[in-house]
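hey so i finally got around to running both of the ones u sent me last week. sorry it took forever, my laptop kept dying halfway thru and i had to restart like 3 times lol. anyway pasting them below in the order u listed, first the sequence line then the structure token line for each. didnt double check formatting much so if smth looks off just lmk and ill redo it

first one:
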Amino acid sequence: MKKLLTTTAGLVVVELLVLGAAIVKPSKTGDRDLDAQLVKINEKAKADPDVFFRQLSQQHNIPEAEIRQEKERRGLSYGDTYMAAALSRLSKRPIGAVAEEYKPKEGKGWGVMAMNMASSPAPRNSIR
């Protein structure tokens, strides 16, 4: 499971890199390429939030309302919401649990979150 989650998290990063280059803002995650992709996701989602939530819901099999609720509740950017949904699916944890764990550790980045989740099993009462 740990190896699969680590590999899949790596694939998420590669998927983001393949989406194309974007204007790089000062790093928030510690990875310039990932930051650039998250900036691009933010820009596209701001232009059409409904499409963003619908596609994210379909891609990760999470109810659209749940994604919207966690974005608002946790004050996540669209890019962070994307990463929370991806890690939710990969770790089989509810998006709320992923977002809740990420927010206080925001400065450490999503890569650290993925590694931490890979090293600890999903909670037994997890819905996913």
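and the second one:
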Amino acid sequence: MSTATLPLVEARPSAAAAMPLALAGSVLPDAQGGADEAAGALELLCFRAGGQEYGLPLRSIQEIRSHQSALPIPGQDSAVLGVLDLRGQVIALLDLRRLLGLPTAPAEDAALRAVIVLVHEERRLGLVVDEVLDVLPVPPQRLRLLPQLPGDFAHRHLRALVSTETQRHVLLLDPSPWIAAHASA
């Protein structure tokens, strides 16, 4: 399969780019408005894993690539598929399904899988998802903080629920823990 970059969207600076990568409760725009509302909509790259829609801030995405096999590295966590050579830079490749504790994707779905290359402060890593969907502009009033949930996972990876007027529900992910643990500089 080709490893060419998929021309989905061109990353561009926006008001949302000033928002910190870690989307903890205090930095999410609130529905009451104020300075955060003036910042405008947060743009999310939406994708699917295990039948659920997830999103990441567009400003944390460097590129989207067709799925490719990684060079396995022994002794890694099960979510680490291995490493890729990305134009001379070696980056870790993580499987979102494994990170989320979901069953492995069926082999027949391989044609839809994609690699999202995340970047933060010159650190990069690849994230395998089932299918890239679209870019969703999210007005601040559509972000809903998640309640306290049992287990550590939700506090480390999930930040909010986005509900659209068309009854679409997207879980907003925080890539900070993955980048801190696995990204290449």
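quick thing i noticed on the 2nd:
Helices lie at 35-38, 96-99, 153-157, 176-182.
anyway thats it, ttyl
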